[in-house]
Amino acid sequence: MPQLGAAVVLTLVSACGTVTSSSDRVFFDGQYFRAKAKPVDKKASPTEFTVVVNGVSASLDGAREAGRYEGTKFCISNFGSSRIVWTVGPDTEPQNLRITDDKLTFAGVCQRP
């Protein structure tokens, strides 16, 4: 029976590394936004990417900063630079932003170092 307990503890401990803690979340304007950056076409133009930020209705300013953050993380992780040329980004005029179904979409190009 003690072996079963040890196996359960090992399973639980190994799973801890895969779960994102709520304390690891980054808040913008007091809100947490789910955001994801991904390449437009990884083979043809790997530096071009989009960022989709969910829940923009909670705070437009917060969603914009969450998108900036995700884009910066994407470029640093993939190209070693935080420099981005935004096609539609956090500094775009509000009337020109792409907002559909409570999702804000940015587009940009990572600048290589």
Short recap of the structure:
With 113 residues, the protein is an alpha+beta fold.
Descriptors:
113 residues; two-stranded antiparallel ribbon; five-stranded antiparallel beta sheet; alpha+beta; single chain
Oligomer: single chain
User: Spans with pLDDT under 50 lasting ≥5 residues?
Assistant: 4-19
> Structural class of the secondary structure composition?
alpha+beta
The secondary-structure element order is HEEEEHEEE
Distance between the termini: 57 Å
Mean pLDDT: 86
Radius of gyration: 18 Å
Strand content: 25-35%
The counted number of beta strands is 7
Kindly state the percentage of residues in helix: 25-40%
Provide a count of the helices. 2
> What summary fits the major beta sheet?
5 strands, antiparallel
Provide the number of structural domains. 1
Shape: globular
